[in-house]
Amino acid sequence: MKNLLLFTVLSVLFLPQNLYSQTDGVKPVPLELALKMASDSEKKILIDVYAAWCPYCQRMHSDVYTDSAVIDAISEHFILVQINVESDEKVSYHGNEMTQAEFARALENRNVPTTYFLNHEGAIIGSQPGYLDEGIFSNLLNFVGSDAFLTQTFDEFLENR
Predict the structure, then answer these.
(1) Measured CA angle at 116 (ends 113, 118), to 5 deg
(2) Which of 27, 114, 144, 154 is deepest in the core (most CB within 10 A)?
(3) β-pairing verdict for 25-26 and 114-118
(4) Could you state, in order of their start, the residue ranges of all structural domains in the chain?
(5) Is 49:129 a contact under the CB 8 Å cutoff?
(6) Which fold has domain 22-159?
């Protein structure tokens, strides 16, 4: 039991350093761990809701999440979680256990891909349905991640960059 606890603590301590790689892209973490990490770091949570059969989801994963500007924006502001709308894998959200599919329904998800933005406490800030290319997506990540959305529109943010 002590070894398991030590392994878990060490994994959590060293995991954030290995989440982001320019060659591998962004590595997602389980929702429960993301909630803990976000609370500790005050980073936001980025939830990528996808389906394995979705070609736009596949492009987001292969082309967008591997882009260096996207990786930089996520590593600065977010902790990434991936939720498969068809998965029976269990997740825990604030003590409520459900499948990934049930969690997607709880988010009232209607389309894939959809990106959800949660604050560091796990409350939904907003969502963006559909495929976004890496340029728009990295700007959106910085817009939400920096809290610029609180004081300006996305167009104003882009004008000031």
Answers:
(1) 165
(2) 144
(3) unpaired
(4) 22-159
(5) no
(6) Glutaredoxin (3.40.30)
